[in-house]
Amino acid sequence: MDFHTEKNRDLKHVPKLTGNAPQRAQRADADAAQLARDIRHYDVNQIWGRLNRWAETSPTRLLAAAVHLAAMAQPRVPGWCDDLGGTIGLHPDYDPARHRAADPNTPHAPAKMGKHDQAIIDLAGKGVHDNAIARQLGLSRRTVNRIRGAYGLPDRSHERVARRDAEIAKLNAAGNGPAVIAAAVGVSLSTVERALRRLADAAERDRAAEGAEPAA
User: Fold this and answer.
1) What is the pLDDT of residues 62-116, one digit of tens each?
2) What is the CB-side half-sphere exposure of residue 208 using CA atoms within 13 A?
């Protein structure tokens, strides 16, 4: 397909936009940045759910975020999603233990398994995070991280942090101070303070994004 044919085809499908360009740009920039961050830390099903919600409730919001994500990309460097095991890792039905580690032809897998490789594959495939695997096998976290990554398996540590942050947020909303929360959750005071800062930053981004919602 030549350039002009493709251009004319695309122009026929330009959506009707609401609000104004600065509003849409501000919202899309925040959405794109949040997606790029959350894709590395959230359950991928949540990301798909968020995008589908946008598609159902505000299709132009989804389109604008996609445009901003494309503008952030650097075509001359490897795809950022390679860190996630390739684009297959973005699918909610992706099972890393089944699709990658079990495949002897995967380019990510070492040519020969090491002493602890299979144990790490099994535990990571069950959703166990790196720190717990390291403690269970008597290895350093760096070693577990390196071996797990070689097989394209994701680190589940973010899920543990997300659950802990949710517990901290609940206790904080109930009026408990950082010291009380730290004792209740079983973590250090500095951990609670960092979590509260993360939660406050996320809430501020959400408020800023809501303020940029285009007019209907």
Assistant:
1) 988 888 887 776 555 545 555 555 555 666 666 655 555 444 444 455 556 778 8
2) 15
Range of the domain at 126: 95-150
The percent of residues in the chain predicted with pLDDT above 90, rounded, is: 14
| Domain membership flag for residue 134 | yes
| Domain match, 7 and 74 both | yes
Q: What is the pTM of this model?
A: 0.42
Find the DSSP H helices in 12-156.
Answer: 21-38, 44-57, 59-72, 96, 117-125, 130-137, 141-150
Residues 146 and 162 in one domain: no
Residue 206 covered by a domain? yes
Cα distance between the two ends of the chain: 36
Number of structural domains the chain divides into: 3
Is residue 123 located within the same domain as residue 188? no
**Residue/partner pairs of 107-110 with CB below 8 Å, 24 or more apart:** 108/149, 108/150, 108/151, 108/152, 109/150, 109/151, 109/152, 110/150
